[in-house]
Amino acid sequence: MKKQLLLDYLPIAHELNKGHGVLWSNGDSWKEMRRFALTNLRDFGMGKRACEDKIIEECDYLIEVFKKHKGEAFDTTQSVNYAVSNIICSIVYGNRFDYHDPRFTSMVDTTNKRIQLSGSPSIQMYNFFPWIFQWVGNRREIHKITTFNKQQNLELFSHLKETLNPQMCRGFADAFLAKKQNLEESEVTNSYFHDDNLMETVLNLFAAGTDTTATTLRWALLLMAKYPKIQDQVHEEVNRVIGSRQVQVEDRRNMPFTDAVIHETQRLANIVPMALPHKASQDVTFQGYFIKKGTTVYPLLTSVLYDESEWEKPNTFHPAHFLDKDGKFVKRDAFMPFSAGRRICLGEGLARMELFIFFTTIMQRFRFTPPPGVSEDDLDLTPRVGFTLNPSPHELCAVSCE
Ligand code: HEM
């Protein structure tokens, strides 16, 4: 496992790769975009108190939606997606959206569709053998959605440009536009701050910042409904440590069991099983195999997250993987859902903060159960096929604890 970290990966050309942005690019453009994204995402709150406040505010909206179902069974997909998406939207565009705003809901719904399609067998085959599988229908569908998402962003950018004040940037997109304007005024012509990089980076942040975290949260709620005794232990800890006051990130260090449940959810759900495709940036010998520079490499995170030599019960939901004999939280080297190395997930800090606050606040208010007539055993943990592994379609009851 450690040797894997020595490989210096760079992503390869791919169905969704136009060579721009922070996710599907490499070389100097990637370096510049990653650095700029990290600095600005932090400036706009990532990992800080300001962001914590945004997540707390969004929890209130999400809880209202859950309450409206009055304990009856419903599908958590859309509401959780919208709530999580609003966090990255606040950071990128400088504002959240109403859950009934069709511009927003269509952007979230189609982005999730695009992510699902890009993991379909036909697209996977296309990625391996592009010259044979270039005509597959899902490719056309992905292009249609991408064009639609770009059009929506062009409209948002156009409004941001009209109202831009470089001294008072509202979010990442403003900061990018201000930097671009500044470079143009200084007559720098060869910079990476061009419209294509703005578009691709915003699309990357929106997709990566919505689907992954929302999917993980939905797995956590499903697992709570399936394992009521574990849910009881989470409720006990939430009541004892927080009671009815507002959850804060600092609470995490006093809540080892809840923290272990979140980590174990991420491990078992294994939502990005193949990370992103990379290429070896130099010749390397790995576990006795010679890998030539330029070879496409898929770092299989599953092989680490389910490694039998690392985990006592790799195929079982077992929060004790992250607890010592005294019930204290323990970090595990093989916990790698965000990948590792130079291309490690750029949003890890944000995702961890979101998962803790959303999950703990939801657990403070609700108990999750299977729908009437469905037993805990009936709840299916088989993932739906996609680029990220989502739970299969299901409904849950959110019963108010108040
Ligand atoms: C539970 C939530 C998340 C998980 C499990 C996750 C996982 C991953 C993984 C496995 C990668 C690929 C790393 C590689 O290439 O080997 C990645 C990349 C990335 N993630 Fe996340 N991610 C999550 C949340 C987020 C969030 C909230 C953001 C938003 C800021 C984000 C932004 C990105 C970006 C921009 C990259 C590309 C980084 C680069 O190539 O330099 N992710 N993520």
Automatic annotation (TrEMBL):
Record family assignment: Belongs to the cytochrome P450 family.
Pfam families the UniProt entry points to: p450
Record localization: Membrane
Main localization, broad class: membrane
Protein biosynthesis among keywords: no
Protein name: Cytochrome P450 2K1-like
InterPro entries linked: Cyt_P450, Cyt_P450_CS, Cyt_P450_E_grp-I, Cyt_P450_E_grp-I_CYP2D-like, Cyt_P450_sf, Cytochrome_P450_fam2
Essential cofactor(s): heme
GO CC list: cytoplasm; membrane
Gene: LOC115574503
Organism per entry: Sparus aurata
Stored PANTHER family: CYTOCHROME P450 508A4-RELATED (PTHR24300), CYTOCHROME P450, FAMILY 2, SUBFAMILY AC, POLYPEPTIDE 1 (PTHR24300:SF319)
Keyword set, alphabetical order: Heme, Iron, Membrane, Metal-binding, Monooxygenase, Oxidoreductase
GO BP terms: organic acid metabolic process; xenobiotic metabolic process
Gene Ontology molecular function: heme binding; iron ion binding; oxidoreductase activity, acting on paired donors, with incorporation or reduction of molecular oxygen, reduced flavin or flavoprotein as one donor, and incorporation of one atom of oxygen
Residues annotated to bind heme: 345
Domain of life according to the entry: Eukaryota
Coiled coil: none
